[in-house]
Amino acid sequence: MDPTGRHARHTPRAPHPPGSRGRAPGTPSGHDPDAGWLARVMHVAFFLLLGASLARFLLRHEWEDRSPWIIALTGALAALYLLGPVLGTRATPRRIAWLCTVVAVWVVLVVLAPSFAWCAVPLFYTGLRTLPHKAALGLVALLTAFVVFAQVQLSHGGWDPNLIVAPPAVAALATGVFVHADRQAARQRALIDDLIRTRRELAAIERREGTLAERQRLSMEIHDTLAQGLSSQQMLLQAADLTWESDPGAARRHVRTAESIAERNLAEARRFVHDLAPADLAEGGGLEQALRGLAERESADFRVDGTPVPLPDRAQSALLRIAQGALANIREHAAATSAAITLTYLDDQVVLDVADDGSGFDPAASRADGGVRGHGLPAMRVRARQLGGTLTVESSPGEGTVLSAAIPLTPLAPPTEAGP
């Protein structure tokens, strides 16, 4: 499980940076603001303790043979400690060699002057921050034992329980605080990494869904415009071919009609390049004018009921595409002698009805066999559903068909799905 308690996904982890192997899991990096702040505090504490230990020795002791050595070693230890931040925090060979040198100089100082034992606490932190977990704990135990030994030596054989108990207690407290803070930082980093991965996955899913939605939209646009126009042209040209010798006038009319359809298809194709809005709507006049022009081209009746109200562009486009798809189905499948389009404005919705007196079909059977009537009806349902509306089909064999699309006026619902 991850730090949040959820089962972690099996996603690839980023490789360890160079030099990071061997460090304890969750060891703070040099780029962690909290770790940097704690390191600065420990650096200040080290130099304060080092200076205080030297001042204590000089104040309590007369000048001795060891005094120059202690002063020199103190300066050397301060200079060595200043090199630590330059070497970084990872357990590289140079960093480990530096730490061993610092500890060795400090040990010599403690042997010469046991009061320098108080510098062990910042060294605990340095070891925990640099070495792997087990090695760092071993170093802390070793330094603690040496501090106890030095304090006992400083007491000149006098028994003082604090000298035995206090150094291990301080070491345990410092180590516990550091380990707890380190683990908390590791949990936070793991949680942040998980959130970043989740956000990237969600972004990828949204991109895929957007791509699928755009493909579905384009497929509906092409089906309702170019594909239907090409189908009409094919039927008209076939009719012209059949009547070319027997009735040249009728053949020419079919060809001219096919030419006008091709011209409109070309306008639709150019519209795709611009903004994919229906060319009929782009010509002006709104939905009513576009439906009236469509009805004239398809030899259908058109009527408007109720008081027209302004509709959003996407609602007008959807209703026009539904009407185009319904008339295409009538032309290709219904064998109807008449068709009618009715646009009705009600108080809370606008309703588009397309009726014909053709052969009809069984809607239940069409749904059961996967939609034998092709892509048209599913595309119409998706268009209505994306606007929070509904599409119903009433038909039976031999009795014609009535298709009804109802779209709410206000507020129009956002799209609920990308496609069927």
How can the largest sheet be summarized? 5 strands, mixed
Distance between the termini: 36 Å
Task: Report the order of strands and helices.
Answer: HHHHHHHHHEHEEHHEE
List the strand order in the largest sheet.
1-2-3-5-4
Radius of gyration over alpha carbons? 42 Å
| Coarse morphology | rod-shaped
Task: Tally the beta strands.
Answer: 5
Mean pLDDT: 77
Helix share bin: 55-70%
- The low-confidence parts are 1-31, 412-420
Structural class: alpha+beta
The tally of helices reads 12
Oligomer: single chain
Beta-strand content: 5-15%
Brief synopsis:
The chain has helices at 33-60, 66-83, 93-112, 120-130, 133-154, 161-243, 248-274, 279-282, 286-297, 313-334, 363-368, 376-386, and strands at 301-305, 339-345, 349-356, 390-395, 401-408.
Break the fold down into its secondary structure elements and pairings.
Elements lengths: L32 H28 L5 H18 L9 H20 L7 H11 L2 H22 L6 H83 L4 H27 L4 H4 L3 H12 L3 E5 L7 H22 L4 E7 L3 E8 L6 H6 L7 H11 L3 E6 L5 E8 L12
Parallel strand pairs: 1-2
Antiparallel strand pairs: 2-3, 3-5, 4-5
Helix pairs in contact: 1-2, 1-4, 2-3, 3-4, 4-5, 4-6, 5-6, 6-7, 6-10, 9-10, 10-12
Protein name: Oxygen sensor histidine kinase NreB
Main location: cytoplasm
Subcellular location: Cytoplasm
Q: What report would you give on this structure?
A:
The chain crosses the membrane at residues 37-59, 66-84, 96-123, 135-152, 164-181. Residues 319-411 form the Histidine kinase domain. It is an enzyme of class 2 (transferase). The protein is an alpha+beta fold and 420 residues long. Among the domains are: 33-159, no CATH class; 300-420, 2-Layer Sandwich (Heat Shock Protein 90), CATH 3.30.565.10. Helix content is 63%, strand content 8%. It is built from 12 helices and 5 strands. It has helices at residues 33-60, 66-83, 93-112, 120-130, 133-154, 161-243, 248-274, 279-282, 286-297, 313-334, 363-368, 376-386, and strands at residues 301-305, 339-345, 349-356, 390-395, 401-408. The chain has a 5-stranded mixed beta sheet. Strand 4 and strand 5 (401-408) form a beta hairpin. Helix 1 (33-60) runs antiparallel to helix 4 (120-130) and helix 9 (286-297) runs parallel beside helix 10 (313-334). It is rod-shaped and about 130 Å long. The two termini are 36 Å apart.
